[in-house]
From TrEMBL:
GO terms for molecular function: metal ion binding; UDP-2,3-diacylglucosamine hydrolase activity. One of its GO terms (cellular component) is membrane. One of its GO terms (biological process) is lipid A biosynthetic process. It holds the Pfam family Metallophos. This is Ser/Thr phosphatase family protein. It comes from Gemella haemolysans. The lineage of its organism: Bacteria, Bacillati, Bacillota, Bacilli, Bacillales.
């Protein structure tokens, strides 16, 4: 009997690893802000990140239903819906077309979009047809009952490196500063969580990022093992982080890329509810 159990152990382990990549986790988070306009109390945002042209969970239909049931006011797509290693435009288009009919969608690039310039251009054109807003180092005001918040979206950090290798960091910071509005509550969509200290210095209130894939392999009480751009034992991999007066939400991502194995790190859909924090007398 023990020999049979040992023989089955690799199969059981392999099955567990597969489930990590297909068993969707929904993370609901409620965030309170003094600066949030009253009319945006209970404002709901669904975050879709790092799909990597992968089928989400065991069924895309289940994933889409979870977003529909949440009934978000907006959906933010924080990069890497494409995949430079195993790209499938049909999967990307199918997901985007389903998201577009649920709520207004806002998209920023990840590093994989920038690796695929031809496909990225096709993606931008498709998003225009779907009325998905492409945030190309731009901002816009979201208004409810005469009150507004400032939504900012920047291209992946590699965009700035490609444009000007010598001054890319300064140009990245300058872009963020120019798009920030001191008179509004500011939400930033930016693929890279490791730039959080920059976002906090500029005083962005809320930031949505991805890229880290949850650290790929997670060890209890230690956290993620590796993340692109952060290396081993990365600092920003999943969950919420607070620095100064800024809050960063990092999605574990909904797909996999060149490294397809997740351990103790399920794919994740983030559903955020913003609340107006009332001052105590």
């Amino acid at each position: 009997m023990n020999r049979k159990i040992l023989a089955l152990a690799p199969i059981i382990a392999a099955s567990s690893i597969i489930r990590q990549s297909k068993n969707l986790k929904v993370r609901k988070t409620t965030l309170k802000f003094d600066k949030l306009p009253q009319n945006f109390d209970n404002f709901k945002i669904a975050q879709v990140s790092d799909v990597h042209c992968d089928r989400i969970g065991y069924s895309d239909l289940s994933f889409i239903k979870k977003i529909k049931d949440f009934n978000p006011d907006m959906i933010v797509i924080t990069g890497d819906i494409l995949d430079s290693y195993n790209n499938d435009m049909d999967i990307a288009y199918n997901i985007l077309s389903q998201l577009a009919i649920i709520a207004p969608c806002y998209f920023v690039s990840g590093n994989h979009e920038l690796r695929l310039p031809k496909e990225y251009e096709q993606l931008i054109n498709r998003m225009k047809k779907l009325n998905i807003t492409y945030m190309h180092n731009s901002n816009l005001l979201i208004t409810k009952n005469n009150e507004s918040i400032n939504l900012v979206g920047v291209e992946d950090y590699n965009f700035f490196k490609n444009e000007d290798k010598l001054n890319h960091r300064a140009n990245f910071i300058k872009t963020l500063e120019e798009l920030y509005s001191p008179n509004h509550f500011n939400i930033l969509l930016s693929h890279r969580p490791e730039k959080f200290p920059i976002y906090a210095d500029i005083k962005y209130d809320l930031i949505f990022s991805g890229h880290a894939h949850g650290g790929q392999w997670r060890i209890p009480f230690i956290g993620g093992i590796f993340s692109p751009s952060q290396g081993f034992f990365p600092k920003y991999t999943n969950g919420n982080y607070v620095l100064k007066n800024s809050t960063l939400i990092v999605s574990q991502g909904l797909g996999n890329s060149s490294f397809p194995i997740r351990i103790n790190n399920r794919i994740e859909l983030v559903l955020a509810i913003l609340k107006k924090e009332t001052q105590k007398s």
